[in-house]
TrEMBL record:
This is histidine kinase. The keyword Transmembrane helix applies. Residues 138-353 form the Histidine kinase domain. It is found in: Membrane. Its EC number is 2.7.13.3. It comes from Agathobaculum butyriciproducens. The keyword Nucleotide-binding applies. CDD domains: HATPase, HisKA. It is an enzyme of class 2 (transferase). It is a multi-pass membrane protein. It catalyses: ATP + protein L-histidine = ADP + protein N-phospho-L-histidine. It comes from the Bacteria. InterPro entries: HATPase_C_sf, HATPase_dom, His_kinase_dom, HisK_dim/P_dom, HisK_dim/P_sf, Histidine_kinase_KdpD, KdpD_sf, KdpD_TM. One of its GO terms (molecular function) is ATP binding.
Length: 359
């Protein structure tokens, strides 16, 4: 839990932290009970409970359960695992020192854990800001360039009455293509907005086969000359996802394959299960990806002059950085490679819903 200023509360209570604390403390009690039945001297309890305090402080948020573990550990050592058993003995030698050590272990570990998590949060916020800046740079060019082309083409039609019908038709086709590209840029921006400020999304169990089928159906309407094949497993594959965002990812990948694949005529769309992940793949028979671009393909830092088409109009950097952000928001991974004379984009989504990590 967090305060309104975004900083974690030092003494917050969550069910997750309580269950971690309870599990660790019960394990410590069971272990000490077994050791006592083995006729080991009373000194075994202290290191076991010090470890329990350390683990509790490390894997819970704030100071609440770490401090509670320190208090209960001292009580457990005194009352349960030190002679006379099941009685308090406050005259024990070193008893105050034991309590002090436990408390120090708890406070130091909690402080270090809190600082580590805060540093990780700052790092992730810095990465998000960097991604936003890269996206804004890409968007500014992606919007300005086709708009300039649209204005130029429409002005030529309006101001040049002696243009032939064929020339007018070609200019109108250019206007349509640029307008469709602008629509795609806006859809990418809406996808980023849909993910929210903290990139957490709402996932629902979806049939992967149906999502792929819908993507392929829409793609065939816009690109009837490009053959697309879909390969799915025999058994129904249910994957937790935001279906709209995942459709956006695959649509971006398919359109990139057409626009940047150098005469792409066939695209293979597939999904299969690999352990606890669903693996989606988009493979084309185009010219592949220049090796120098592979390390920065999803960073959003690609310059327009770096793109394979080199026309300055179609930058795949924005779409791919959005794809990567969506997949990461699902807890998955994404990569690209050259294979069989074409490019292949692969992303994996976890099939088991996991609790989001603290950011």
């Amino acid at each position: 839990m967090k305060q309104q200023d975004g900083k974690p509360r030092l003494f917050s209570f969550t069910l997750r932290d309580f269950l971690i604390f309870a599990a660790i403390f019960i394990c410590a009690l069971v272990l000490c009970t077994l050791l006592r039945r083995s006729d080991i001297s009373d000194g075994f309890a202290s290191p076991v409970f010090v470890l329990a305090v350390l683990l509790t402080s490390r894997f819970t948020n704030g100071y609440l359960f770490g401090t509670l573990a320190a208090f209960l550990s001292v009580i457990g050592i005194n009352y349960i695992f030190t002679f006379p058993y099941w009685e308090f003995n406050f005259t024990m030698t070193g008893y105050p020192l034991t309590f002090f050590v436990m408390l120090c272990v708890s406070l130091v570990t909690c402080t270090m854990t809190t600082k580590i998590k805060q540093q990780e949060q700052f790092r992730m916020e810095s990465e998000r800001e960097k991604m936003r800046a890269n996206l804004l740079r890409s968007v500014s060019h992606d919007i300005r360039t086709p708009l300039t082309s649209i204005i130029g083409s429409t002005s030529a039609i309006l101001e040049t009455p002696d243009l032939s019908l064929e020339q007018q038709h070609q200019l109108l086709e250019d206007v349509r293509d640029d307008a469709q590209w602008l629509v795609r840029v806006v859809e990418n921006l809406l996808s980023i907005t849909r993910m929210g400020e903290d990139t957490r999304i709402t996932k629902q169990p979806e049939a992967a086969e149906e999502v792929l089928g819908e993507v392929a159906r829409k793609f065939r309407k816009h690109y009837p000359d490009v053959k697309i094949s879909v390969a799915v497993p025999d058994e129904l594959l249910i994957v937790p996802m935001d279906a709209i965002l995942i459709e956006q990812v695959m649509t971006n990948l398919l359109e990139n394959a057409v626009r940047h694949g150098k005469n792409t005529t066939h695209i293979a769309l597939s999904v299969h299960q690999d352990g606890e992940n669903a693996v989606f793949a988009v493979q084309d028979n185009g010219g592949g990806i220049p090796p120098k671009l592979l390390p920065v393909l999803f960073s959003g830092t690609l310059r327009h002059s770096d793109t394979p088409t080199g026309d300055g109009k179609r930058n795949m950097g924005l779409g791919l950085s959005v794809c990567n952000a969506i997949v990461r928001a699902h807890g998955g991974t994404m990569h690209a490679q050259n294979r069989d004379g074409g490019a292949e984009f692969i992303f994996c989504l976890p099939m088991i819903e996991k609790e989001p990590e603290l950011q």
